[in-house]
Amino acid sequence: MPTGPLELHLGEPGARLDRHSPFYIGFFGGLGALVAWWLGSQVLAIGSTLVLVVVALFLAAGLNPLVEFFQHRGLTRPWAVLAVITLVMVAFGLFVWAIVPVISDQVTTLSENVPGYLDQLQRNRQIQALDDKYDIIDKIQEKVESGDFVSSLFGGALGIGMRVVSTLFSVFVVVVLTLYFLAGLEATKHALYRLAPASRRERVSLLGDRVLDSVGNYVSGAFVVAVCAGLSSLVFLIAVGLGKYAVALAFVVALLDVIPMIGATIGAVIVTAIGFATDPKIGLACLVFYLIYQQVENYVIYPRVMSKSVDLPGSVIVIAALVGAGLLGVIGALMAIPTAAAILLLTREVFIRRQDQR
After folding, report:
1. pTM of the model
2. pLDDT score of 157 more than 50
3. Is-contact 248 95, C-beta < 8 A?
4. How far apart are CA 229 and CA 225, in angstroms?
5. Domain coordinates of the chain in residue numbers?
6. 76, burial (CB in 10 Å: exposed 0-12, middle 13-18, buried 19+)
7. 4 burial via Cβ count (<10 Å: 0-12, 13-18, 19+)
8. Please, is 238 exposed, middle or buried when counting C-beta atoms within 10 Å of its C-beta (0-12, 13-18, 19+)?
9. DSSP letters of 32-80?
10. Helix axes 156-183, 185-193, angle to 10 degrees
11. What pLDDT, on the 0 to 100 scale, is given for residue 37?
12. Residue 147 DSSP label
């Protein structure tokens, strides 16, 4: 009589499933594709949040040299971070304080002058023929004189309010995240460097520090370019007859000029529109000046300053800014150049050196 538990004989196990069989490859390949698609959809769902996080990281890396500057002057890192954030918020407040009254004043002036401009257009024979056929000028004049054409551009008062709330919330999130990233940047760097193998940790640390330094150098170079744009605009606006708004508009141009490639255009459009609202001759002078200055900045000032700041050829700077703007708009344009500098640095130090050793 057997003393152990009753054992049933269910046959010998079969051969293991062939991992090279079409069924195995197709099933697990399809399962992997579904998982990848699901993960991609989740990433796209939180895309706006990820953009805010990336912007905060970029700002933290760019402001870190300024934090270290205050540290070298005797401040502890928390107080240095607080000082830098305060300076940034003061600059943003000055931007709002400078541009809002000017835009409000000039929009009112433009609304009052547009009917006169339309009357002048009606005297042109070709314009008059088109107006007789399509009644365009009367419709524009009626819309302008109604007083609500500005709000209708933004979808009405509710649309303006929602955009303001959304923008303020995004700014608040970026500021808070930047504050946290700046405060814990050193600890975060060391924690990430420890993920590398001990044999390569020192090299990874040196490369990581070089990448962060390139971001800081880019921010410094962008500041130099913005100062050039602001000072040249200040001198021009005083000379052309816009001395009343020269300081405010020059400050706006300098702040917008931080955006590579398109920032100067945005500032030029704002100043030129205000110039036309004040006097058509001043507006025409602004248009000519900024057309010339933008070419000088894009092809002379910007490549030379950035080539010294982030060690990139001028052609790579222009291409990186265009690609970044095409992918992520203004945010992509801001981050494209330091990203290109980091990629070029890693390519030189890792890939090319490895190729040279073969």
Report:
1. 0.62
2. no
3. no
4. 6
5. 48-119+152-195, 207-349
6. exposed
7. exposed
8. middle
9. HHHHHHHHHHHHHHTHHHHHHHHHHHHHHHHHHHHHHHHHHTT--HHHH
10. 70
11. 92
12. S
**Residue-wise pLDDT tens digits, 161-203:** 566 667 777 777 888 888 888 888 888 888 888 888 888 888 8
**Higher-confidence position of 334 and 3:** 334
Handedness of CA 42, 48, 53, 58 (dihedral sign): positive
Residue 38 one-letter amino acid: W
Q: Which of these, 297, 235, 238, 289, lies nearest to 264 by C-alpha position?
A: 297
Average pLDDT estimate for 213-236: 84
Task: Spell out a b/e string for 263-273, using b for 16 or more CB atoms within 10 Å of the CB, else e.
Answer: bbbebbebbbb
Token code pair at residue 208 = 């990581």
Assess whether pLDDT exceeds 80 at residue 228: yes
Position 100, amino acid:
V
Closest CA to 101 of 248, 225, 210, 304: 248
Q: What is the pLDDT of residue 289?
A: 92
Evaluate whether 220 touches 65 at the Cβ level (below 8 Å): yes
